Hints:
With 111 residues, this protein is mainly alpha-helical. It has helices at 14-18, 25-37, 44-49, 54-67, 89-94, 100-110. It folds into two domains: 15-67; 76-111, no CATH class.
Amino acid sequence: MAPATPAAPATPTAAAQTVPVTRSFADARLIVEMCALAGRADRALGFLDANAGVDQVRRTLLSELAAGPEIGSLLPPMGHRTSATPSDPAAAAASPTHNPVLAAVAKLRKG
């Protein structure tokens, strides 16, 4: 008596019929990670559904990031403390108490 084999589904889904999956699991994972790192985790499923390649996703995300607002941060040199005064805006921006990047890092450290 032959062992029982699982029955194939009666009809595959329409998506499976129209879009062949040609990427590896590693590529899919890389696309999801790139989207998350770019702050666009919401785009990962769209890229995967469109069967976009890793290079295409990388170029798209980089061009979107480049077209976005400029990120500016003045960080003080390591171990250097500045005394922020209203007359010195650069020193005020570099101050740990006024720097949004340093404030975000401190907030993450606290949990």
